[in-house]
Amino acid sequence: MDAQGRRRAEDIDPADQWVLNPQTGDYELRLTPSAPESGIPSPRRMTNAAPPAQGRTRQAPPGRRPQQRPPGDVPGQRRRRPGEEPLGPGRRRPKQRKKSRGKKILLWTGGTLAFLLVGGAATAYFYIEHLNDNLTTVSDDGAGTGGFSKDKAINVLIVGTDKRTGKGNEGYGDAGSPGHADTTILLHVSKDRSNATALSLPRDMIVDIPDCPTTQEDGTQKNIPGEQGKRFNISLGQSGRTPSCTMRTVTELTGIKLDHFLVADFNAVKTLSSAVGGVDVCLAKPIKDPDSHLDLPKGTSTVEGDDALAFVRTRHAVGFGSDLDRIKLQQQFLSSLMRKMKSKMTSPTTMMDLADSATKALTVDDKLSDVFKLRDLGMELGKVDLKHISFTTVPVVDNTDGATVLVNEAKANPLFAAIKNDVSLTATAKKKKDAQAARLKGPKSAAADVRVNIYNGGAPQGAASKTLTYVQNEHGMNKASQLGNHEPKQAKTTLEYAPEQADQARKLAEVLKLPGSALKEGESQTNDQGLPAIVLILGADFSEPGTAVGAPAAPKDLDKTEADKKTCAK
Fold this sequence. Notes:
Structural class: alpha/beta
Oligomer: single chain
């Protein structure tokens, strides 16, 4: 940058240079002053770049057309909105309400690394090529959904590998190993972005690893045979397995289809903790662990770099010295790092440092092949309030060998079902559930007065016919009709009714044990007699008439904590 450019930059608060473009939802770096000045080359395009003849122009982000100003539009001048009247002499526009500092921070922190690692990539347009070069991409080999959607729940697998790559990591032993799935978290973000669950999977948990079609480094395909009754951590690195195999293993265990994976090495912990100026951790007793080289006093300490890595790797000096105790340390560290990142995200400079650190330490699936996609994912994940992010661990029991653990299916299966059905582990959805339950309260019509058209919209074959027989023969709803299949298919059962039919809807919901969330006030249809009828569409959550419909309740006896809570390791 020339001297003139430096003088201008020194007179401007860096935070004010990043402006939200309401058309794209992106923050853009704007150095344009309020009056025309002679142009200077963009910092990304200084070589062979010809300065513009008048005013300043900004390089458009890749894949976007540069915005064209209307004739006579002066740089820095506010344009009238469509339909807005020009102001006469002496008139002033009403002051716009400024965004609060908290909302600015929230927007800047929208990319908190898949909850952490993708965070810094949310704004750095002129840095984009450098950040893309930092990323390592690996095929998901068809193990995922093909990518997340903004209108659906999101499931991301975050894997910390113990592969000893990166500067300064050679001394941790096992230098020649291809690594393992050492720390693994299934992050589920609810469809409405009101809550999230971070489910840790113990590395020593015994699981079945499925066959894994895997793309090799030379682009060829190889099918790696599955193994039964093996440690979970060998689903990555061993026998040539890539993160796509870890995805398949988690899906087979939980029944949850994953959208993406993010794999981080040791340097992710070291560089990110340093980028935020250290992470606060708390110990109920002092730790001096010769294996991880951790030496910390009782109480709160701030760790970064190698000390941060030692903290998340230690296990022999806490609890019973097991991997389960280490998981609690890791969850405490991640929660604290998230809080620290949110408090530090007040300037683009901090975002740049985090972006560089995060992308250098990341390996991502090929559906997240550039930082714009990472940013979009991060913005979705960043919508969740920290107090509604729950950390928990797959329930397990000790194995007879004393070194591994087994899935406690009685507790784990309800937890997997709750996550799969988008059930929150926090109290965030209580008000919404109360409102839904209220739909079931009120007067109910007589069963003989219920007129309903029944469709199969994703339930098992024959479900609509069975339901018709059930409501007619066992409950006397002889005005019910079965009208075949419904398109498109839907995941959840719905019952739509006109306002004056609410009593009929409540009666049918009582008979079929429908939840309040299934009821929807809207429009009715006509039945085969030409009379108005409520509309029942049986979704994929419907099994048998008379069996309760809806998502399972969240398990109540889980060992869990929320990301906004400060805890001390025992």
